[in-house]
Amino acid sequence: MTDIPLRRATESDAAAIADIYNYSVLNSTATFDTEPKTTSDREQWIRDHGDRFPVFVAEADGVVVGWGALSSWGDRKAWQRTTERRSTSPKVSRDVGSVAD
What's the predicted TM-score (pTM) here? Predict the structure, then answer.
């Protein structure tokens, strides 16, 4: 198995994250989005996540090949410590093998 390092995403990763996300938008129903996201959309999304709900990227040979993020589960007080995990990595499975293998 190839080790794929993870790191916190920065706004400079927004184009790569949008590219990976949009692959899923255009080629699957996994996102339930019907329109691709722009780099600007993803920059704001990264800023909105902040420290409490971080966004991470996976890199292979210096190229972002996947991302993951924590999001708030809901806006009700009882959900304040509950998170939802999302990740997309079609490029990982297509180009370098599944991280789950």
Answer: 0.77
